[in-house]
Each structure stands twice: as C-alpha cells, then as structure tokens.
C-alpha cells in the first residue's frame, strides 16, 4: 500500500460543497481522540462556516442575486474557509504520520476519521505478463532479407505508460538462455535484417519492462530469413 494522502478536490467557488466538506470535518474532529489539538480549532472552523453560509444567503439564489460587493464578500469568506481547511488537512496529515509511522493502513484509518477524503492510490503494476500476439509480420514493403516482428502489450498493463520498453532477443536455437539481446525499443514492432551472404534460421523472443524490472519472456518465434 502506498502512503495515504489527503486530497481536497472541492473548488473555492463551489460554495455549498465547501460548506458541506467543512461541516463534515468539524463533526469528525469534534471529540476525536486522534486529533486532540486541531489547528485551526473546531470553533474557528465553525465560525468560518457560519460566515460563508451567511454570505451565501446575502448573495441570494439564482435569479435573485445581490450586489457585486456581496459577491466579493462571499468569495473572500469562501477563500478564507478553503485556506483553513487546507491548514487543517496539513495538521491531520502530520498527526496521522506521527501516530502511525510507516503503518499505512493504520494511517489511512486515522486520516479518514478526520472527515477528509484520501487521494486515489495508484494501482501497483507488478511484474508484466507475457506480450500478446508476438508474430512475424508479412509485408511487401520489406526487403527479402528482412523480417518484421510485431506484438501487443501484456494483458495486465493498467495503463499504456506501465510498459517502459521492450527487450527483443535473438538466437540461433530454440534455447532462450543461449539468445542475446538484439534491441531495446519503446515500440511494439521491430525490423531485423540479415546482412550475411547466407540464409539464416533465427529464433526471437520479446519481453516487456517496467519499473519492477523485466516481465515474462514470450514464446519463441522462428523465422528463416533469406540472404541479401
């Protein structure tokens, strides 16, 4: 589990939503033994909420708006409440960190008890599976001494960016351990060329790579490539 972090996604101009978030935090922090010294205090937050609620009432409903000065006052009070919530979130984050250390599940539980929401955690990718549909691609644009290899990303890639590169291997037998690295590419295709004066029988393998290292190696593709 990655480190849990508070996320405040409510916009300053979403006045009702901002008030709802602040009310939830006030209710959650009141008497919460995880957070005995809220900063700002619960009373200060409650006062800021009241200021925004009153300013919303003065500004009025759609079709019956108040003056420009009342709108400016509402924006200023909403900004103050938003800044106080950010300060409170930082206090909550620091307090939970001190209490839980690297015990992230416990930290998450403490953070959630404050009324704040957590940022979405990234799904760990893990070691990549075998690439899909690794094959020799026939094309009229190729010279007779060329072979084009194509494949698709592994099934368990959460996003396209999870694959950092592909390693292509080539050997003269079907034994993978005897093969050597032919190329490293970010593309899902590769053109190999036989530059010798004789026809060759090559075996190819490919594996995807991400931040966790090398993925599962593919099955071999066997291709006879004519000479120049």
Please describe what this structure looks like.
The chain has 228 residues and is α+β, with helices and mostly antiparallel strands. The protein folds into two domains: 15-112, no CATH class; 132-225, Sandwich (Immunoglobulin-like), CATH 2.60.40.10. The chain is built from four helices and eight strands; from the N terminus they run H-H-H-H-E-E-E-E-E-E-E-E. The protein has helices at 15-29, 42-59, 68-100, 104-112, and strands at residues 132-137, 146-152, 165-171, 180-185, 189-193, 200-210, 213-214, 221-225. The strands form two sheets. Strands 3, 4, 6, 7 and 8 form a five-stranded antiparallel beta sheet that branches. Strands 1-2-5 form a three-stranded antiparallel beta sheet, with no helix packed on it. Strand 6 (200-210) and strand 7 form a beta hairpin. Helix 1 (15-29) runs antiparallel to helix 2, helix 1 packs parallel to helix 3 (68-100) and helix 3 runs antiparallel to helix 4 (104-112). The longest helix is centred in the middle third of the chain and has 33 residues, at 68-100.
Indicate the mean pLDDT. Answer: 92
Radius of gyration: 30 Å
Describe the global form.
elongated
Structural class: alpha+beta
Q: Beta fraction of the residues?
A: 15-25%
Poorly predicted regions are none
Q: Give helix % range.
A: 25-40%
Tally of domains: 2
Number of helices: 4
Q: Sketch the major β-sheet.
A: 5 strands, antiparallel
How many strands in all? 8
Distance between the termini: 55 Å
Succession of helices and strands: HHHHEEEEEEEE
Give keywords.
228 residues, alpha+beta, Immunoglobulin-like, 2 domains, five-stranded antiparallel beta sheet, three-stranded antiparallel beta sheet, 4 helices, 8 strands, elongated
